Structures are given as C-alpha cells and as structure tokens.
C-alpha cells in the first residue's frame, strides 16, 4: 500500500519538480485556524506539511518553535485534539501528506500501539522523532511494521552522521531529512561549511528523496544545493511569518506559491 508521502514525492520526481515541505506548530492560532492553514497550503501547492506536536522540552527546536510550542500548550493543545483535527481534515477531503514531528515521550505516554492505530485511523502519513536515535528505534519501528497503512518513520541525518548514513538509510522510507546545520532549528541559513559534500554523500547512498532542512527562509538559500537535493523544509521562518501576519491564509498561500515557483525555476 503506497503511502501519501511516497505518492506525492514520486509525482514531484515524475514532473521534474523539487518538493516543498513546511513545518507548523499544531494548535496555532487554534485548532480550527490550524486546520484552515493546512487547507490553504494544500491549495497553494505545499507538498507535505509537518505538524509539530507541542512538547514541554523540545530539545531539537530553536527559540521560535519552542515559543510556539509553549503557546500552543498554554491553549490546551494535546495529542488527542491534534488527532481529532487531522481526522476532521481528512473527512473534509484533504489529501495532503501529513507528518507528525514529535518527541518519543508523547508516544510512550499515549501507548505505542494505540498511537500507531490512531495514526492509521485518522490519516497520519509519517513520523519524525528527533530524540529517538537509530539504535533505539525498534521499540516503535516494530509496531509500525506490524500494521498495514502505518505512518512511515522518517530518518534524520546530520553532517556528523558520516559512516552511519548507509546504516540509517538502509530500510528508510518516505524521505531522508538532512539537517543542514549543527545545533537547533531556526538558525539563519548558517549551513554547515561542508554542506554540499555532506548532501552529496547522502544522495549517493539514498534510494529515497533527500530533503534539506534547518535555517532555510527563501528558495535562494538552497540554490547552491539544488542539483543534489530533492526538496527542502521550512519551519521557523514559516512560523514567524504566520505570527507576524496573525495567521493569515493569504500570506501563507503567497509564501508557498512564491517559494515553490522559485525553487523550481
């Protein structure tokens, strides 16, 4: 059974297009507003939306996403409400691939098997769990493998993954998330000094699309890497843009359309 992420990325490849992925914090400006923003992005051509599940100690996230996560928690956002929102989105006919970016403790607390079943039931297509190292993934991966239609566990690699990259990507599905700088999310286009060499190494061993994330604001930020990557991910900048525009749908659509157009010029 082909996953929505794989279908969309295969379509991008067939059309010789680079994929564009956005990250947004679930529950902002509120649950209904969050759903509307996803719909707006789907209309504008975003290929995949990463939904950050708010967590009290988001170790991989920079100040922008941490602050957004805190605000969302203060408004009462929790995993159950996010599932309800995704379920509602799917019932309204949305087909955009959705990835939960979340911390493992949230999954453990919900119960791994129950969590996986709920993802299948509501239509979650992928998971990114930044605090779950490759060696510690079987506890989750084994349950995902046991259920047809379960979300894909997206692998993260960094500029220091080095010799571990072939091992991490051996059975990977969906796309590989290439962290382009050391540290946390949201640093301004301050990519690792050997970023091109690192991305090339990943591309050489990856059977799945290679996506670059961390520190990207405009399409021109990734222009030097375009020949190597299959697409890119924007998070902190998109969140800031939404905050500054009071979560305006048209602002979101305009940003997505412009970025995707320039990314594919």
The gyration radius over C-alpha positions equals 17 Å
Task: Work out the helicity level.
Answer: 40-55%
Side-by-side strand order of the widest sheet: 5-4-3-2-1-9-8-7-6
Poorly predicted regions = 183-189
- Mean pLDDT score: 93
Count all strands and give the number: 9
Shape: globular
Q: Give the termini distance in whole angstroms.
A: 33 Å
Order of helices and strands: HEHEHHEHHEHEEHEHEEHH
Number of helices, where a helix is a run of at least 4 consecutive DSSP H or I residues = 11
Q: In percent terms, what proportion of residues is strand? A: 5-15%
Protein structure class: alpha/beta
Quick one: biggest sheet? 9 strands, parallel
Characterise the protein shown here.
The chain is of the alpha/beta class. It is about 45% helix and about 15% strand. The protein contains eleven helices and nine strands. It has a nine-stranded parallel sheet with strand order 5-4-3-2-1-9-8-7-6. The chain is globular. Mean pLDDT is about 95; it is low at about 185-190.
How would you summarize the topology of this molecule?
Layout: H1 4-14, E1 19-25, H2 31-44, E2 48-52, H3 63-74, H4 79-91, E3 98-101, H5 104-110, H6 112-122, E4 126-128, H7 138-146, E5 152-153, E6 155-157, H8 165-169, E7 176-179, H9 195-205, E8 210-213, E9 231-234, H10 236-244, H11 249-263
Parallel strand pairs: 1-2, 1-9, 2-3, 3-4, 4-5, 6-7, 7-8, 8-9
Give the key terms:
11 helices; 9-stranded parallel beta sheet; 265 residues
């Amino acid at each position: 059974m082909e996953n929505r992420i794989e279908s969309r990325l295969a379509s991008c490849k067939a059309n010789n297009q680079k994929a564009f992925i956005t990250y947004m914090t679930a529950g902002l400006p509120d649950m209904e507003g969050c759903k509307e923003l996803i719909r707006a992005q789907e209309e504008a051509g975003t290929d995949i939306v990463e939904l950050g599940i708010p967590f009290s100690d988001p170790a991989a996230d920079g100040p922008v996403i941490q602050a957004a996560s805190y605000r969302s928690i203060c408004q009462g956002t929790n995993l159950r409400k996010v599932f309800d929102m995704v379920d509602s989105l799917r019932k309204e006919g949305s087909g955009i691939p959705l990835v939960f970016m979340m911390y493992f403790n949230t999954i453990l607390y919900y119960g791994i098997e129950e969590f996986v079943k709920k993802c299948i039931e509501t239509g979650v297509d992928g998971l990114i769990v930044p605090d779950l190292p490759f060696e510690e993934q079987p506890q989750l991966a084994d349950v995902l493998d046991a259920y047809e239609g379960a979300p894909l566990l997206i692998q993260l690699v960094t500029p220091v993954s080095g010799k571990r990259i072939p091992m991490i990507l051996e059975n990977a599905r969906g796309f590989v998330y290439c962290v382009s700088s050391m540290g946390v999310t949201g640093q301004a286009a301050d990519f690792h000094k050997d970023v091109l060499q690192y991305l090339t190494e990943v591309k050489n061993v990856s059977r799945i699309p290679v996506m670059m994330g961390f520190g990207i604001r405009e399409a021109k930020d990734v222009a030097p890497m375009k020949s190597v990557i299959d697409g890119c991910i924007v998070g902190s900048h998109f969140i800031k843009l939404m905050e500054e525009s009071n979560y305006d749908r048209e602002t979101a659509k305009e940003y997505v359309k412009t970025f995707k157009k320039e990314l594919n010029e």
